[in-house]
Structures are given as C-alpha cells and as structure tokens.
Amino acid sequence: MTLLGLTADPVRPGRKRDLTRDPEILAATLEVLAEEGYDGMTVDMVAARAKAGKATLYRRWPSKAELVIDAVACMKNAGLDPENLPDTGSLRGDLIAMIKPHSMEDGERKLHIMAGIVSMISRSPELATVAHQAFVAPRAAITRALIQRAVDRGEVSAEHDLETAAMVAPAMTAYRVLMLRQPVTRDFMVSVIDNVILPALGVKPAPSSA
Amino acid sequence: MTLLGLTADPVRPGRKRDLTRDPEILAATLEVLAEEGYDGMTVDMVAARAKAGKATLYRRWPSKAELVIDAVACMKNAGLDPENLPDTGSLRGDLIAMIKPHSMEDGERKLHIMAGIVSMISRSPELATVAHQAFVAPRAAITRALIQRAVDRGEVSAEHDLETAAMVAPAMTAYRVLMLRQPVTRDFMVSVIDNVILPALGVKPAPSSA
DNA sequence: TATATACGAAACTCGCTAGTTTCGGATATA
DNA sequence: TATATCCGAAACTAGCGAGTTTCGTATATA
Questions:
Q1: Cβ(B127)–Cβ(B68) below 8 Å
Q2: Do residue B181 and residue A116 have CB atoms under 8 angstroms apart?
Q3: Nearest nt to B58, CA vs C1'?
Q4: Would you say the C-beta of B19 is within 7 Å of strand D?
C-alpha cells in the first residue's frame, strides 16, 4: 500500500490531524470577519481567536482567501431548515412564525459577515458564488416556499409577482443593517410583512391585527 | 497684515494652490473606490488617475481616510434635485418618471462605491455619517416627498406605513446590486413600483397597465 | 530679483501582514 | 524504539502601501 504514495494515502505514520479543530477555526474566522472585515482581519487574529498556531491554519488552507471562502461556504443556517417550515395555515402566520430571536440574531450576524466581504466579492468569483449560496439562496428559497404554499391553498393568486415579493424581506433587512445600521427588530419585521409583503401579494389584513 | 500669521492668512508669497484640482482628485478617488474598494484602493492609484503627484494629495488631505470621507461627502446627486421633482398627477406617474437612464446609472455607480466602503463604515463614525447623507438620505427624502404629495391630493391614505414604503425602492435596488450583483434595469424598477410599492400604499393598478 | 510656495514625478522610510520556518513536545506507525 | 507527522508558539522573510522627502520646474509676493 505504500508502494506509490503519489495520492492521498490515509495510511501514514505520525500524529493524526485533529479534525475537530477545523470547525473551530472556521468559526473563529467568521467571528473576526464580522468584526474586522476581510482586509481588517489578519491570519494571526484568527489563530489567536481559535487558540491555534498559524502553521496549523496554513497546513489546512493554502491562503487567507481560501480560508475565508471555506468559512463562508461552511456557514451554518441556524434554524433555517427548508424541510421543516412552520405551517400555521395562513401566509401571515407562517411569515410571523419565521421571526424567531435566534433566527433574527443569526441573520444579523450573517449580514455583518456579508458587509465584511462585499468589496471582496467583486474580485473573487468563487467567493461571490459561496456568498450567494450562503446568504441569498437559503432565505429566498424559504420565503418562496411559504408563498408557494399560500398559492397552492388558494390564499394567494399566482398572478402576483412572487419572485419580487420573496425578495422584499431579505432586501429590507439587508438595507436596514448595511445602510441604515439599525438593528433588525421584531416590530420592523412585522411591519414589513403586514405593510409590504402581504399587500404586494393581495392578502387582506385581518380586521383585528392592524 | 503680516504682523501675526498665526491663523489662515490668505496673503502668502509663492505659487497659489490650483483649486480646480480638488474636484478632479475627489472624482478620481470615487472612481478608484468603486473599482477597488477602500482597502484595494491605494493613494498612488488615485494620484495616477488624477494625473497628480502624491504630495499634492497629502498637501490637501491629511490621510487616505480623510480623502475618502471628503470624496463621499462631496459626491454629486446626479439629477436628484428635491426641489424639482416630477409632477404627473399620479403617484405611479411620478415614481415611473424618476426612472431615468442617467439617474439609474448614477445610482448603480453609487452602490458600487457604497460596496467599497461598507466594511469601513463600522469603524469610522464620520464615514458612516457622510455615507448616510450621501447614499441614504437623498433618495429616501425624494420618495417620501412623492408619497406625501400623493397623500395630500388624497390618492393615498395616511394610514399606511409611509416610512417603510419609502424604503422599499432603495432597499430593493441595493439588494439587487450588492447581494444579487445584477444590474438595475427599468423593468425591475417598474416591477418594484407596480408589484410592491403601490400595493403597499393601497393604490389600485390602472386596468390597462398591468 | 530673491524668496516662498505650488506642481508632478520619483525615491525613500517604516510598519504591518501573508506566508514560512523553527522549536519543544505530543501522538501516531512500523 | 526510530521515525514521521501533528500541535501551539514564536521568530523570521519578503513585499506592499501609507506617508515623507527630494528634485526640477512653475508661479506667486515683495
């Protein structure tokens, strides 16, 4: 088995790489990224945050850029499982049920990470791809699924522009965090749902919830 | 008059500073900023773009950060004059009239500049202030003014959430450029107006314009 | 004319950071 | 046990860029 060690031969002498450190290093990368931005982040900061040696990082990722791409790509979607969506029977109920403290907190953290890599994205197509998959695609898919269910049950007419409607919530939250630099509160989300998204889809407000 | 030259005494010997170079240098700064982002931009790039010496820049601004702050603060609002708004008689007409190629082009360029300084904003309150005044405030004020006029003429009820509605267009365009990295087309703007903003304000679509 | 400042261009310094190497020690194979 | 790889820590290298200085020249005051 050791005749030709050209490719990845798992049987090697020496201490094994501690695989539990990978997610810890990636988590530290995201933390520093959110606080300092891509250019403000140094590899030493990440190593210190993860209580790891810099050599350990460079043994696993060939460059700072690859480390960041991997960190963004492996980002967890906290509580956003597209298979396990709320089902309250009404579109408004489903959208409101999506507003959970943990989910909002995570979304805001992600937007700070996004702010840290926005300027980098235009020069790294690979980062642009993983960023889209990490930040844009999951939320859009979930909102689209909730709206589609409302269409299926006859609550919303398919005549409406569903794609644009599904983009409203992500766009408004991103704008609020990145441009207005205000926190995303529950009241703000409810206001967007009741005053923008539901009217756009032709859903009449419940008489007592205005 | 030269008895005490403690403060800015305009009567000084020597060649006068060429004041026409200030706006040229600031324009070059914005160009490089949009292309490279704050950290990717070097002072040498700006000097070369403006065909100026680096010493000339440092004679006028004490640091790269101050130069960028000044460039953003002095940014022109191409065609967005809050005193000279379209008045077509209907909110939809006014909003559609705001979609001019020159204005959209300028808005997209501004968003690329914004992308270049987003990560810097969280660490420079001064930059955050001028960025808000340059990017956020003007557009919000115009949309708010158009909506307010619609309220005044009885087209829109003041019961609606006007603030949130005024934020929809800036938020959707920013999201489209910064996150989706797609161009802002006229069709997109019309879709946002007809399918999101007007429904949010309770304006019924004209029967033949759907 | 003598002096002081501005100009563009280019050389220079100095600190910071990506990436490498070295070290003592730990853990694996053979 | 001998060897090879891992670990964290720290020293090291090399390049880049912010900010300064220098140079030859142009333009202002006195």
A1: yes
A2: no
A3: D19
A4: no
Which of B128, B180, B196 is the closest to A136 by Cβ?
A: B180
The pLDDT value recorded for residue B81 is 79
Scan residues 90-149 of chain A and list those with Cβ within 7 Å of strand D.
none
pLDDT band at A10 (very low <50, low <70, confident <90, very high): low
Report pLDDT for A4. 35
Query: pLDDT per residue over B182-209, tens digit each?
Result: 999 999 999 999 999 999 999 987 654 4
The Cα–Cα gap between A166 and B126 comes to 34
Structure tokens at A74: 């492996």
Q: Could you report how far apart the first and last alpha carbons of chain A are, in Å? A: 72
pTM of this structure: 0.91
Tell me the two tokens of residue A2.
Answer: 């050791």
